[in-house]
Amino acid sequence: MIAWLKGRLVEKHPTRLILDVHGVGYDVAVPVSTFYAVGEPGAEITLRVHTHVREDAIALFGFPSAFELLVFERLIAISGIGPKLALAVLSGIEAGDFVAAVQRADVSRLTRIPGVGKKTAERICLELKDKLPPAADADVATVVAPAPNALRDDLVSALANLGYHRSAVDKVLDKQLAVEAPPRFEAALRAALKELARS
Fold first, then answer.
1. In order along the chain (199 residues), what is the average pLDDT of each group of 10 residues?
2. Cα–Cα distance, 148 to 179 (Å, whole number)
3. Domain locations in the chain as residue ranges
């Protein structure tokens, strides 16, 4: 059973990463949130891993935090929800928002996730209501973040594609990334957009 991997990112795709760990390449399926969190090829990263064993295959599913791994494992414990759908759920909603939606029994929010119908959303709410960690834990559970330069490059690219001027973007990011522990991509992008909307 592989519980976590630490190594060099060789390739990244929205739903999978290839990680070099002491010369061995691991192909790890990931949600889109992990794709954004890990930085660029060449970066040293750590992933929490769920090892999924079937008769015909062994598959690895990777996450940047123990919180997201726990949410994934709670999801696949539900009858009828396999790893593929669980990854789709975590690609369609942030783990903390998912937990909050389940605790509110917000079926309409869950059905906006591709692949999740009303019956599945209702079953998720019913079965996981008392089995998930507090949503607040999502902000403190991250075990890997991209290097500041990689994070900055990703943010500049995303904000430029949204039409923001480079000088305004640089000003906001200088302030935002001048912290000891850089935020994750999604949180950093939201904060930057909020700041740019004010200026």
1. 89 92 95 85 92 88 91 93 92 89 93 90 92 66 49 76 77 74 72 77
2. 10
3. 4-63, 66-139, 148-198
